[in-house]
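New to this. Comment on this protein:
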Amino acid sequence: MIKKILPSILLFAALTYLLPFVCLLLPAGASGSAGFAPAASAPPDTGGGAAGLWNGLGQPDEPSPAAPESGNGSDGAAAPEAAGLAQLEIQLWDEGAGRLLRVPVEEYLIGVMAAEMPPSWPDEALMAQAVAAHSYVLSQREQAGAALEGGWLAVDPARRQGFLTDEVLRSYWGDAYEENHARLAALAAQVKDELVLYDGAPAAACYHAISCGATEASQNVWAEALPYLQGVDSPLDLTSPDYEKAVTYTPQQMYDALSLGCPGLDLSGAPNSWFGEVRYTGAGYVAEQQVGGAAVSGLALRAALGLRSACFTVDYADGVFTVTTRGYGHGVGMSQYGANALALTGKTHAEILSFYYPGTTLGTA
């Protein structure tokens, strides 16, 4: 089955790859993320706003960013009422179809687990994903803009982004539908009332595919510094077969990408002089790098060059640029691969969530 669908999945990933970020040129010494404000309505890089996506075959698709909008609990979305949380309908804006979806909680959890992790991953990892996504979407209820037509989060089931409808799951899984659906439904039933809470409110429990070995602080990617999104060491991510990837560019390709993505740079010198000093964030992502005489944010370079991560190095030798990235996604919140690795060591979903969102509690409705 895998061999039959793999070419289609790879073609899909290639056609739908997005360059999600906006170019930002910074004066020397400025913060590498100052002024960067992605749309809160974007589907998860995701968590609907902050997460990494997996294509169901164990390979990550490129995440799409969205900033966590909730504050520190007292400033965030109001906590759901204790009674009837499992009966609450999740409101999602289907960008591909241009329609509002009203989805029962358990159906949402099945669809988000299927969209975000391979169904073969351990139960505890899948349940951690379900609780994180549930918490995130509830944290966005009061934050969603009018552009979502009443939706709390933007998804695109047809492109397998953020949430998969039952129709898409039947097509996607084929003969494995009944088995996979029954398994995820059983897991959803176990955690349908659980939420990651901060100060009693649903936390903006962002997630991504693979960290660089440590998760990133929210203010280095978006504008807001959330106390439970200040980064943790995630060394098991280094064991991922997709942890490190390299891509090459000719000087002309690099010139074109930088000119289009970050206009105004002085690239008149020799190619080996284009890239200079780098400043890193505490987690090891590029905060900014000197390029063409200006300080450019790592996020802007990631966008301009179409990189998997803002943790990268640029080398020039023998007439070729080699850019090596580590990790996959924005790096904030829970690493999905890290959750998988922790589950394999025997950690429960509660322990995984507590690890990646320090200072939060796991509450039940």
Remarks:
- Residues 38-209+358-364 form one domain.
- The first strand starts at residue 25 and ends at 26.
